[in-house]
User: Fold this.
Amino acid sequence: MNSFSRTARAHANIALIKYWGKRYIPLNLPAVGSISLTLEALTTTTTVAFRPDLAADSLFLNDIQANDKQSKRVFEFLDRIRDLANISHFATVHSENNFPTGAGLASSASGFAALAVAAAGAAKLDLSNSKLSELARLGSGSAARSIFGGFVEMHLGAKKDGSDAVATQIENKDYWPLELLILITSTEHKKIGSTEGMNRTAETSPYYQQWVDTGPKDMRAMKDAISRKDFSYLGELTEYSCLKMHALAMAANPGIIYWNPLTMRLIETVRELRAGGLEAYFTIDAGPQVKVICKPENSEQLRAKLREIPGIKSILHTRLGGPAKLLDS
Ligand code: DP6
Assistant:
């Protein structure tokens, strides 16, 4: 094999029904299903080149050589691709995010989705979206969803080998033109990553079993809200899943708190604005940023109101995005 290089781009996603907890850590199998929206404005672009002249793998994130922890996860991922393609060359990986990394903006989701597509392409593997989603999941659970655009379901799956713990598209991005405002409250790197946070929660939170048990009901309800395009129902379920996830993480030992005072203030503000007739709903991942879901006709007015709150570093505005894809084909 000569050298092969491919570039892929994937979008971040935001979960409406959260993934939090694994039922089998070695294969990164989720303990609950999840439902997300793929986001147009937040992307990772990754180039993978397998080359015969390399003595080791290397990883660059936004042009800076990655640390050992980040590199290990990516190099293990490359091993899986090499096994599948039956090749032995090492690779260089260059990955660029167009948004702040490590601050709870799901860089691992777009990151491993883009890596899966670029690495499979570079290794000349012709894989289905389902297989790409399975591979992306092995890198990061939420990444399985970023293979698809629009409204996406991550299935819990039942098989031991994890081949059915993959995402599928519920509806494409044009089905229902929702928009999001992403309020950056802090650009500091998060203290407890999602993997560590969810594993500690599973081990120590007294509410964890209830979370797992009530997961299927939340999934059914959200799919119903999407099929009926019932925005109020979708929004209420989104806040419910978010607060439920954070409550069980807070009840872990030691308790995990991802919020800062501004996060809390924004939760209150979104609810006040809603009570005043400007319909919007919040959700928050493993970090302090607040994502606000709204209809297109309200996004500018909401943005103007939210901009008045002191302390917000920046506001990103996005529509729903499409699937992960190769850029150079
Ligand atoms: C709060 O996918 O980052 O964003 O599988 O351990 O890599 P790993 O976790 P990750 O967790 C995402 C958690 C979340 C909720 C979600 O996106 O569903």
